[in-house]
Amino acid sequence: MSDIKQVEAGRLHGLVLICAAIMPAMAIVSLVPVLPLLQAEFADVPGNEALVPIALTLPALCVAVFSPLAGWLSDQIGRKMLLWVALFAYAGLGLLPIFLTELTHIIGARFGLGVSEAVIMTLATALLGDYFKGESRERWIAIQIGVVSVSAVFLIAAGGALGQAFGSRGPFMLYVLAIPIAFAVMFLLF
Questions:
Q1: How far apart are CA 117 and CA 127, in angstroms?
Q2: 58 — alpha (psi -120 to 50), left (phi > 0) or beta?
């Protein structure tokens, strides 16, 4: 008889993973309302017409490029710890542009953010697959897709409100939301 207690996944585990999966969607949509402010702020930077949109969309490209590596890495070192680290990196790199003044530095931070997003998106989905089986797995994956899609509406509104209140860097404050999710991953997931 084994002394290891078998843990079964429940709603709380699924909800934590759904919250984690929302973070990558936040990277682009929360900044859309302040795109004109960022364009105006960096109007004197050569190539700003291309570079500012690149700063917004670069994380999505990183998700496409680095997700396979994230999956491979999670198989080597474990999903929970890697997800935890990625969420903290996401929060730090997401908040960093509040303090940066150079567009190239912001693009660099957004690249790192995109790599973190690749890990978060890949592992949130992989852990749902690990935790749930059969119809339950299908239901949780459908919930993840639906919630992430609907969250975009609220994230655009939140980004706009923060942009109106704090200017072009306001929406970057949303990245702090990854910190409580990281703690939930650490203490609630197995």
A1: 15
A2: alpha
